[in-house]
Specification:
The chain is of the alpha+beta class and 140 residues long. It has a single domain, classed as Nuclear Transport Factor 2, Chain: A (Roll), CATH 3.10.450.50. 23% of the residues lie in helices and 34% in strands. The protein contains four helices and four strands. The longest helix has 14 residues. The radius of gyration is 15 Å and the shape is globular. Bound molecules: zinc ion. This is UPF0225 protein F4562_001207.
């Protein structure tokens, strides 16, 4: 990411806009605080914050919340891809008292103006105490 796009994304008003994850909260009080360094307390919170990180193209956050055994060298953001909505369908485990969890969700996007949807079950586990993304089962 170049310096110009970085400064545009971190304008003073960035924290006040609605969170991309779909919860009725401002970005700064919702997923933005996880992107800023606070630990996500549940697998669902981590899932939402990772979706939001794709939406705001926060590669560093995506990489540090990815299990080291499955983490890619880098995250590519496709040009013309815009994440537009997230719907959590099912959660199992993943609470502050669990060490594993799965989250099934639908993520909506527009790619070059064409709407699309990703339906996926993601697996989460803990690494050094913090929730991390392990891998995904594509359900369609
Ligand atoms: Zn959020």
């Amino acid at each position: 990411m170049n310096a110009a796009s970085r400064s545009r994304r971190t304008s003073p008003r960035a924290g006040a806009r609605p969170c991309p994850c779909g919860l009725p909260a401002a970005y700064g009080e919702c997923c933005g605080r996880f992107h800023a360094g606070q630990a996500a307390p549940t697998a669902e919170a981590l899932m939402r914050s990772r979706f939001a990180a794709f939406a705001v193209e926060d590669e560093a956050y995506l990489l540090r919340t990815w299990h080291p055994t499955t983490r890619p060298a880098r995250v590519g953001f496709e040009r013309g891809m815009r994440w537009t909505g997230l719907e959590i369908e099912d959660v199992s485990g993943g609470s502050p008292f669990h060490t594993d969890g799965t989250v099934t969700f639908r993520a909506r996007y527009a790619h070059g103006g064409q709407p699309g949807e990703l339906h996926e079950r993601s697996r989460f586990t803990r690494h050094e105490g913090a929730w991390v993304y392990l891998d995904a089962v594509f359900t369609n």
